[in-house]
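Open question from group meeting: does this chain pack into something compact, or does most of it stay loose? Before anyone orders reagents, we agreed to write out a predicted structure and look at it together. Recording both the input and the output here so the notebook holds the full record.
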Amino acid sequence: MISPLSVLEIKSYTTLKQKKKFLNDVVKKVEIHWDNITNTHTIKIFFHLNIVKDRGSKVDDYVYKIIKGKSLTET
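Structure tokens returned:
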């Protein structure tokens, strides 16, 4: 489980190791499929938390409780 991070903290990541750890903490799995008919890729990103199309209820300054959401996004 990841701890709450500020945008400034995430933007301060400069090493590949820091960036990779952040992505591994947030993203569970990525699936990429090729469609021979349309010659396009389909990408599915699975997250550890339900952060896709979620809504938040403010609990405190910069603290939100996630209300509904999915752990999958597709393009």
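Observations to bring back to the group:
Residues 7-74 form one domain.
The longest strand covers residues 27-35.
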